[in-house]
Amino acid sequence: MRDNSNLHLNRYNQNQLIEIFSLKDLEDDAIFSNYQRYDFYQLLWFTNVAGDSSYFLDFNEYTIENNQIVLVFPGQIDRLDVRQKEGYLFTINNDILFTINQRLNSDYLNGYFSNVFISLNDNEIIILENLLSLMVLEYADENRITLMQSYMEAFLFHVASLFEKSDFFKNLQKHITDPLVAGLMRLIDANFIIHRETDFYANSLGLTNRRLNEISMKGTGKTVKQHLQERLILEIKKEIRLHRKNLKEIAFDLGFSEPAYFTRFFKLHTGQTPSQFRDN
User: Fold this and answer.
1) What does the pLDDT look like over 112-135, one tens digit per residue?
2) Domains, the chain
3) Rounded to an integer, what is the distance from CA 37 to the centroid of its chain?
4) What is the pTM for the complete model shown?
5) Distance CA 217, CA 199 (A)
6) Taking a C-beta distance cutoff of 8 angstroms, is the pair 171, 199 a contact?
7) Is 189 exposed, middle or buried (0-12, 13-18, 19+ CB in 10 A)?
8) 3-state class of 2 per DSSP?
């Protein structure tokens, strides 16, 4: 596994398309102590959890348990007290995961069902431990990307299969039966900064605005406009918490022509101004 000295996980190592870290080796590093944003995929496998069991992803607090796996998507931000945690962190190049999912065609991997924690049964633990051993051996030796990608594909195949067997997915299927909902969510995630009107998404999916809103309401209980507003608010919160830009820069980068409109929009949907959110 990779030596974590001088480690900056939010900066992808271009020389390594798949990397493996032990969580115990990261205890003395501060990478998880504050919110970080990543431009690549991360797969976290918690094998033994002690101490603080909270894990914050995009401002949502999750309680992690032993032998759980979660996939963290590019653009998300997270915070975790890694002390007293055992397990593994895999970082995966975006193109590699895209190639893998072209074959697996998993809704879990494509990001529609994000931040679902998957609990492993005894049989799957054995299978994943064997695959992990193969990856660690290859990673420490020749680190051939063809083999590493094959092992990771097998690993993700089992993770995605467990997701499709989970109660969460079965319950969700009862409410979301139209594949257009998944397509809409992907379109919104890719275009929400530039395109904030329902027309664009309806035209992209070959539907009328009314029909698309009917599908969205049936599948999610929200209109297209509500999804766009929620996605934009989430992005604003991420940018503020990262402290890389001032509020005016965030406003212009996210398509607001005037800082005053940016402030009104944020307060309308959160009950506080961007400055109050930043200070709190």
Assistant:
1) 666 789 999 999 999 999 999 999
2) 18-171 (2.60.120), 176-279 (1.10.10.60)
3) 10
4) 0.69
5) 16
6) no
7) middle
8) coil
